[in-house]
């Protein structure tokens, strides 16, 4: 069986990188995906869904280096369910209401921000696996 998810949105804060005990880099960041639509009663509705994204290896290092709060990205990856619920991670907000976040393990991260937007360059891409390499300084479009 196989599943994939594609998300386009903006980073909610700067990425955070750490290393596993075995030395593998992992970068975590949150992405907000917005949807605007008109409800049946004519009211404009703004809906935001938050995703927590994890990138691994060389891709993690590239994401940590080039992404910043506000950067627009396209993420292609897989959902990672909460081990205790089998679904999204559920938590209690400060106001007492429930919140949920969807955990995604990135397979591909594309940088979509134009030069200067969200302090990130545009058009870059980082893939997982042995194929992932940091772009040469001369190839970076910003």
Instruction: Tell me the number of helical segments per DSSP (H or I, 4 or more residues long).
Output: 1
- Uncertain stretches: 119-142
**Mind describing the biggest β-sheet?**
5 strands, mixed, barrel
DSSP, total strands: 8
CATH second-level architecture: Beta Barrel
Kindly list the characteristics that best describe this protein.
single chain; 142 residues; mainly beta; OB fold (Dihydrolipoamide Acetyltransferase, E2P); five-stranded mixed beta barrel; 1 helix; globular; disordered C terminus
What does this structure look like?
With about 140 residues, the chain is mostly beta strands. The protein has one domain: OB fold (Dihydrolipoamide Acetyltransferase, E2P). The protein is about 5% helix and about 45% strand. The longest helix is centred in the middle third of the chain and has 10 residues. It is globular and about 55 Å long.
Helices, strands, pairings?
Blueprint: E1 5-11, E2 16-19, E3 25-38, E4 44-56, H1 57-66, E5 72-79, E6 89-92, E7 98-111, E8 125-127
Parallel strand pairs: 4-7
Antiparallel strand pairs: 1-3, 1-5, 2-3, 3-4, 5-7, 6-7, 7-8
Describe the structure concisely for a colleague:
Helices cover 7% and strands 47% of the residues. With 142 residues, it is mostly beta strands. The chain has a single domain, classed as OB fold (Dihydrolipoamide Acetyltransferase, E2P) (Beta Barrel), CATH 2.40.50.
């Amino acid at each position: 069986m196989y599943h994939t998810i594609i998300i386009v949105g903006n980073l909610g804060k700067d990425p955070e990188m750490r290393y596993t005990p075995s030395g593998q880099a992992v970068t975590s960041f949150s992405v907000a995906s917005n949807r605007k639509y008109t409800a049946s009663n004519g009211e404009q509705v703004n809906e935001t869904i938050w995703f927590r994204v994890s990138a691994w290896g060389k891709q993690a290092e590239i994401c940590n280096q080039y992404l910043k709060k506000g950067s627009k990205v396209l993420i292609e990856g897989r959902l990672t369910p909460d081990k205790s619920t089998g679904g999204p991670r559920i938590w209690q907000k400060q106001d007492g209401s429930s919140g949920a976040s969807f955990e995604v393990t990135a397979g591909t991260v594309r940088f979509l921000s134009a030069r200067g937007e969200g302090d990130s360059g545009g058009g870059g891409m980082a893939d997982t696996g042995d194929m992932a390499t940091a772009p040469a300084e001369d190839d970076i479009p910003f």
